[in-house]
Inverse folding.
């Protein structure tokens, strides 16, 4: 069977910043993906005016092969890429990047194309924006002040031409992934002008409309998901229930994603959220492709060693050795529901006091990026960071300030459970300070924990809450997390003794749609208190008290994690979907027929070429 060619449009083409970068790493390093995809290209924007050494332009473990601004052209690409630079007044860099999964022998490689669109040919850009308006109803004037929108609309047309310049005829049709909203302008360009060369995939890592409605209303997930289910049962959509959402450029773009040849959702609720956008999506198949979860092998000896190190560190901070080690590795945003951790810990404090147990919760999160090691040492020596904190960088900034207030208030009122806020990226003596045991790293933190919290109000999937699963941890997630569906899928609905699901959407009585829309802070808070008490009871019941209990949870965790890996996801979920899209004999039908005689534009390859001309033939 012919191998596939895939393009991934993303803001993490050169650097891994968050979830999408983690997903790409897992996909590109999978042998299953490599068996079926011969060529992968990552494409995204960059900024020439931000000074970076040429060797670092494409990120770590990369090689720059073309850059006209640096005088580099190792593959003789100047004749193909420089006319695009001249025509659109952009800069293009191209090279290769290696991917390595830490702690494993998995590696992968992808080509990288980055385009500086800060100074773009305005006439060509306006033509594209006009086409977006005339054919999709997307009014760019409403969103031009948002650089996130403007940058990716500017990227679309030069990215399309750069890809045509790099792809060979035998590699067509090429699969173009739009990772979230960022790649949709490029996908729309391919749909309008490259139907024979491209098949487009919208990879829904979330649904922007749902995230906004969950995060900005005090009813959060309790309100939104009950409204969603009732509205869908009544055949109503988001604009019918919550009003016009088109003030959000993300919503405006994603609402047209049904034009793509395929749609992937990372979680069951994400698929429902996409369907909720409008009736167009009800006629579109949405494929469930869960994210893979790391499946490193952990022995009881490794777990015991890691627990000893984390317990030693806790003693250095607290002055006593906790029995139960809890963690939450996350971002400091509303959707992560961090206040729910404190409510569960409040319930645990009373239960631990009755049985003579103690516990500590390490919250590892940062709003200030990675602190310098010398600043960490100074804070550690000066006032005992991270047990104690001070306002202002290099310590508390942004949402860390409010979070630390919650920590201080909780610690003052509880004795058997304490919380430590570690506002840093990374876990080593270099990053956390000299009280951390020598040789301890982030893998030890994940292997040591007894409980990992992840009771988010909005979590399309949630890789992080399941990362310690294979180490025998109890992973506490909310019912709206996409990873809940994955666990149920691989266990045939039985669940896992290592996973506790907290359902904050369970109401005490049925309500009509108007009643559900009125759900607010007071009722959500009451539901949270009840559910968090149930979670605390379940934790007390499942937490092991000896090595035998820990070995049992380690065994059950090790049994399930191989089923959650990227190889399984790709083999059983993604590859078949991609082959279906590529091999479909159905003629693609879009909602706008091209005007009679209209053909895609082609870039004049001469330096003087500033006007488009009609394409006469397919690309090489």
């Amino acid at each position: 069977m012919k191998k596939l060619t895939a393009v991934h449009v993303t803001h993490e083409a050169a650097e891994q910043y968050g979830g999408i970068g983690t997903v790409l790493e897992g996909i590109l390093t999978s042998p299953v993906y490599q068996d079926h995809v011969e060529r992968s290209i990552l494409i995204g924007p960059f900024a020439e005016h931000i000074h970076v050494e040429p060797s670092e332009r494409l990120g770590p473990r990369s090689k720059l092969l073309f850059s006209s601004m640096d005088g580099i052209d190792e593959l003789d690409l100047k004749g193909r890429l420089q006319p695009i630079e001249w025509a659109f007044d952009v800069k293009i860099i191209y090279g290769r990047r290696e991917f390595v999964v830490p702690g494993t022998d998995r590696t992968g490689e992808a080509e990288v194309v980055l385009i500086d669109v800060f100074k773009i040919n305005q006439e060509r850009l306006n033509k594209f924006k006009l086409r977006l308006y005339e054919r999709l109803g997307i009014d760019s004037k409403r969103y031009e002040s948002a650089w996130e929108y403007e940058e990716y609309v500017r990227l679309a047309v030069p990215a399309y031409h750069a890809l045509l310049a790099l792809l060979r005829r035998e590699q067509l049709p090429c699969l173009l992934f739009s990772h979230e909203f960022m790649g949709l302008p490029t996908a729309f360009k391919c749909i309008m002008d490259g139907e024979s060369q491209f098949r487009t995939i919208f990879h829904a890592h979330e649904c922007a409309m749902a995230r906004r409605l969950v995060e900005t209303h005090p009813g959060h997930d309790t309100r939104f998901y009950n409204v969603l289910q009732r509205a869908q049962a009544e055949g109503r959509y988001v604009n019918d229930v919550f009003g016009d959402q088109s003030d959000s450029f993300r919503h405006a773009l994603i609402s047209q994603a049904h034009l793509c040849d395929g749609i992937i959702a990372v979680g069951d609720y994400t698929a429902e959220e996409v369907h909720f956008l409008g009736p167009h999506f009800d006629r579109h198949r949405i494929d469930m492709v869960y994210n893979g979860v790391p499946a490193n092998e952990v022995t009881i000896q490794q777990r015991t060693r890691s627990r000893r190190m984390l317990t030693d560190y806790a003693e250095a901070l607290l002055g006593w050795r906790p029995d139960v080690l809890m963690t939450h590795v996350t971002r400091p945003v509303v959707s992560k529901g961090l206040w729910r951790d404190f409510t569960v810990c409040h319930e645990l404090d009373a239960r631990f006091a009755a049985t003579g147990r103690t516990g500590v919760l390490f919250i590892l999160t940062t709003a200030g990026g990675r602190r310098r090691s010398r600043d960490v040492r100074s804070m550690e020596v000066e006032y005992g960071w991270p047990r104690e904190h001070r306002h202002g960088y290099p310590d508390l900034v942004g949402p860390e300030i409010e979070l630390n207030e919650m920590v201080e208030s909780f610690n003052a009122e509880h004795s058997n459970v304490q919380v430590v806020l570690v506002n840093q990226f990374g876990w080593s003596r270099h990053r956390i300070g000299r009280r951390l045991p020598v040789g301890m790293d982030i893998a030890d933190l994940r292997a040591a924990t007894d409980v990992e919290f992840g009771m988010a109000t909005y979590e399309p999937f949630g890789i992080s809450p399941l990362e310690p699963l294979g180490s025998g941890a109890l992973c506490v997630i909310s019912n709206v997390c996409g990873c809940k569906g994955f666990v149920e899928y691989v266990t045939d609905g039985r669940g896992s003794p290592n996973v506790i699901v907290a359902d904050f959407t369970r109401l005490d009585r049925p309500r009509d749609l108007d009643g559900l829309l009125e759900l607010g802070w007071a009722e959500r808070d009451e539901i949270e208190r009840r559910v968090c008490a149930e979670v605390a009871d379940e934790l007390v019941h499942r937490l092991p008290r000896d090595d035998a209990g820990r070995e049992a949870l380690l065994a059950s965790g090790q049994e399930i994690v191989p089923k959650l890996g990227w190889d399984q996801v790709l083999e059983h979920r993604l590859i078949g979907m991609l082959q279906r899209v590529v091999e479909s004999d159905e003629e693609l039908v879009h909602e706008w027929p091209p005007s009679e005689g209209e053909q895609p534009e082609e870039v004049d390859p001469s330096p003087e070429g500033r006007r488009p001309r009609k394409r006469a033939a397919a690309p090489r």
In short: The longest strand covers residues 91-100.
